[in-house]
Each structure stands twice: as C-alpha cells, then as structure tokens.
C-alpha cells in the first residue's frame, strides 16, 4: 500500500504528453499552446476611423464652420482620392481614413444639410483615428508557447490571421462501469437493481476537461468483462469504476493483468479510495476506481484530471491543495489519510465546514459539498486549526 502523495506522483510520472496537434482556434480553449504565435499583420492593418463621423483636415475645422461633404466611406470600402482642404467625407466606424485627412469628427458634433456639414466643435490632429499597427506590429509575438488558451485569447489569434494553432492533444478515454446490478438512468429499475450514478458523473467531469466518453456497463462475469476491457484498452486512458476490491466478483485487476496491463499500485492509504488500481500498457493509463460515488469523485480530482492535463501538456497538472481554517473540529477516525467531504466559504480566510454523511456512497452529501478537507493519518484538527483542502 502506498501513500496518497506517492499515488499522485506515480500517475503524473507515467502521464507523458501526447504528440501536439493542430487545433482550430474556436476549439482551442483550455488547450496548451505549443508554439509562439506572431501576428501576420499590423493591428489595425490600416488607419481606421474609431467613430462614426466625418473625416477632415483638423486645421480647417472650428466651431460653426461648414464644409461640403464629398461622399461616404463604409467599413471595407475606400475613398478614391485624397481629401482636399476645405471639404469632408462621411465615414463609418472601422472604415479606412482617406489620404489627406488627419482627424475624424464625431457625428454628435455635426449637422448635415443640403450637402453641407456644420461643425459645433473643433478637433485635434489624430483625434478618433486608430493608427495602423498601434495595437500590434506585424511579426510581433502575441502569445507565448505554454499559454493555456482562454476565451479572451481567441479574438487575438483570429485578428493575427490564425485559424489553427499547435496545441497539446486531448486523450481519448474509455469509461467502463462494472456490476450486474446497475442500469442506465431512465430505464425501468428492476428488482435488486440500482441506477448507474458513477458513469454519468464521470462522463460529465470528463466533459469539463474537454473529453467526451459514453459510459459502458460491463457485467461481473469473466468473458463479458474481458471483452469490455479489451475494447476499452484502445483508448489513451481507461477508467473502470467498480470491481477493484478483494471480493469474489472484484475481477478487474486480474482481468487487466491478463490483458497485459502492468500494475503500478493497487491500494492507497487514503479514505475514500483505498482499493484504487493504477497500471499502464505501453503509454496507456488504466485506472480502476472503487465503486462508491465519493471515491469516484475524489479519484477524478486527484488522479484522473491531473493525468488528462499532463497528457495534454497542461502546465497546471497537479491537484491544487489550498490552506484553510477549520470552522469545526475534524475527526475522521481512520488510520489512513482522510479526504473529508466539506464546505469551504471564503471570508478573511478560507473557512472549512464538515458535511454530515454516511460514508463514500452518500451521494447527497457529495452534492452539498464543494471540497475535500485533508486530515493526516490517525489525525484530527480542532476548531480554528489549519488544514489543506481540494476544491472543485
């Protein structure tokens, strides 16, 4: 049996990044950028009007002045000749400023009648003009390699002329739920059956990391289980929920070994999740998770999400435990490291509260919690004491 920290380190040690892929920018949020990105153009690529109004020569505009309007420039259009002194041209936001003009007067300070525009305010040179390259110069780096792409980066990538970027690859994941008693939600629940809560929960958690996997139910019967796991081993990551303990029908570890999976650990000194199995087959990662929902949830946060992120070249792989102050006494009464379902509230400090529960199968307690508070082996923390917590 290994420690909780050793288990997390072992998973990350074997979760080596997948080869990079080209990703469309609209699909790249959450991906790690694996190249420096430089702009293919100046931004803006030409002098453009920042407002709706009139392009003018600033020196000829004073309050009360009237100038003849020589046309209209819309965004994407052009003015065929330089603007002369003593005239103006109507211009829309984003349209190119014509040669000869050095300012744009906002439409709010003008009145157009019979082809003449009367100005109610003066203007300075350069006013209301966005100059070519004032935001970004052609060839300028806009994003560094290693950046985790966020929503706010997408417009910059598009404006720089990039439709695709080189990123980390998301792994394929196979999700297998074992047990002769589980049925998919929505089906008729027969005698001695329960609904499959772990499968949809894990599938939803995978989706938050950009991965799509449909849960497959496999019976606790050697041939059916072997066939299901053999198919699952085509994926980069295999998640097996249930069947990893020591009972007569806990067939998963032996079946995985028979299929060529090398066991790296099977038991972890942690509660929940003691019977956790982790192994590899080549570069494939195989997780056998105890069947209780809270153990599934904890295993995803502590082992599986970090593995997905590491395979995808994310720099923020390891679980992030923060420091909090216990608002109540925590006394889990277990010889193992305890991850206690808790509620954290942000005040001057993070305040941690315990959640009443009936063990690692208590789904309603999980629904009320928002973190695990970590208590050391055979330990307790008094009210006002400090503890690490893992939030979701």
CATH topology-level fold name of the largest domain: Molybdenum Cofactor Biosythetic Enzyme, Chain A
The number of E-state strands comes to 26
Q: What fraction strand?
A: 25-35%
The total count of helices amounts to 7
The CATH homology group name of the largest domain: MoaB/Mog-like domain
Ends distance: 27 Å
The CATH architecture of the largest domain comes to 3-Layer(aba) Sandwich
The profile of the biggest β sheet is: 6 strands, mixed
Question: Could you report the average pLDDT, rounded to the nearest whole number?
Answer: 95
Globally, the shape reads elongated
Total count of domains: 4
Task: Itemize the secondary structure elements and their pairings.
Layout: H1 4-14, E1 21-24, E2 37-38, E3 48-49, E4 53-56, E5 66-73, E6 88-91, E7 103-106, E8 110-113, E9 116-119, E10 129-130, E11 141-143, H2 151-159, E12 164-167, E13 173-178, E14 182-183, E15 194-195, H3 198-208, E16 215-218, H4 222-232, E17 237-241, H5 252-258, E18 262-265, E19 270-271, E20 277-281, E21 284-289, H6 293-311, E22 321-326, E23 337-346, E24 350-354, H7 363-368, E25 371-375, E26 386-391
Parallel strand pairs: 5-6, 13-16, 13-17, 14-15, 17-21, 19-23, 22-24
Antiparallel strand pairs: 1-12, 2-11, 3-10, 4-6, 4-7, 5-9, 8-9, 18-20, 20-21, 22-26, 23-24, 23-25, 25-26
What do you see in this structure?
It is a single chain. The chain is of the alpha/beta class and 392 residues long. Helices cover 19% and strands 29% of the residues. It is built from 7 helices and 26 strands. Strands 7-4-6-5-9-8 form a 6-stranded mixed sheet, with no helix packed on it. A 6-stranded mixed sheet has the order 16-13-17-21-20-18, sandwiched between helices. The longest helix is centred in the C-terminal third of the chain and has 19 residues, at 293-311. The model has no long low-confidence stretch (mean pLDDT 95).
């Amino acid at each position: 049996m290994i420690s909780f920290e050793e288990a997390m380190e072992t998973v990350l040690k074997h979760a080596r990044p997948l080869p990079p892929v080209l990703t469309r920018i609209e699909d790249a949020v959450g991906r790690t950028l694996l190249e420096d990105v430089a702009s293919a153009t100046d931004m803006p690529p030409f002098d453009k009007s920042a407002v709706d109004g009139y392009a003018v020569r600033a020196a000829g505009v004073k309050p009360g002045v009237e100038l003849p309007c020589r046309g209209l420039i819309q965004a994407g259009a052009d003015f065929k000749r330089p603007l002369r002194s003593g005239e103006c041209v109507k211009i829309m936001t984003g349209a190119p400023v014509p040669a000869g003009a050095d300012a744009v007067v906002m439409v709010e300070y003008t009145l157009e009648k019979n082809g003449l525009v009367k100005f109610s305010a003066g203007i300075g040179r350069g006013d209301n003009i966005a100059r070519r390259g004032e935001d970004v110069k052609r060839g300028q780096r806009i994003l560094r390699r290693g950046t985790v792409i966020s929503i706010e980066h997408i417009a910059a990538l598009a404006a720089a002329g990039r439709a695709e970027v080189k990123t980390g690859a998301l792994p394929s994941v196979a999700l297998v739920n074992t047990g002769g008693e589980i049925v998919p939600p929505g089906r008729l629940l027969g005698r001695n059956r329960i609904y499959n809560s772990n499968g949809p929960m894990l599938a939803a958690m995978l989706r938050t990391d950009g991965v799509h996997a449909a849960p497959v139910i496999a019976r606790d019967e050697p041939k059916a289980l072997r066939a299901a796991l053999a198919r699952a081993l085509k994926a980069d990551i295999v998640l097996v929920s249930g069947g990893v303990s020591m009972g007569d029908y806990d067939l998963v570890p032996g079946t995985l070994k028979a299929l060529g999976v090398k066991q790296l650990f099977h038991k972890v000194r942690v509660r929940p999740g003691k019977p956790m199995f982790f192994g590899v087959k080549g570069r494939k990662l195989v997780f056998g998770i105890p069947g209780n929902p809270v153990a599934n949830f904890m295993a995803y946060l502590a082992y599986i999400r970090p593995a997905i992120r590491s395979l995808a070249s994310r720099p923020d792989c390891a679980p992030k435990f923060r420091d909090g102050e216990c608002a109540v006494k925590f006394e889990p009464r277990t010889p193992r490291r305890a991850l206690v379902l808790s509620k954290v509230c942000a005040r001057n400090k993070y305040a941690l509260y315990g959640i009443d529960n009936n063990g690692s199968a208590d789904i309603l307690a999980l629904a009320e919690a928002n973190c695990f508070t970590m208590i050391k082996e055979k330990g307790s923390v008094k009210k006002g004491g400090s503890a690490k917590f893992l939030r979701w």
